[in-house]
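User: Sequence in, structure out. Go.
Assistant: Echoing your sequence, followed by the structure tokens.
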Amino acid sequence: MTREFVPPPRGVTVRGALEAELASAPETGLTAKELSGLVGISEKDVAGHLEHLEKSLKAGGAALTVLPAECVACGYVFRDRKRLSRPGSCPECRSTRIDPPAFLIR
């Protein structure tokens, strides 16, 4: 799914733009890299904004759903990981080939 970056209209915050993209995300969710391209921020900044967005959504009765990262080499799934960023390596096989987590709003 590749869409061209269109800057958000004035008055829309980065977190508001992230919320809008996640609300319309497919069931497979959107990765931090996809979100950074859609919203126009760096991939590293996405995790910080998502942490704050998660708190705002919880207060409003919605929830940020995290589809966990998975090791490509051995299939290990990072189910208990609390951080929203991509893991550096697999604790089972030490591989760095990791599919990043995906996010959506439910």
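User: And one key feature?
Assistant: Residues 4 and 27 are 20 Å apart (CA to CA).
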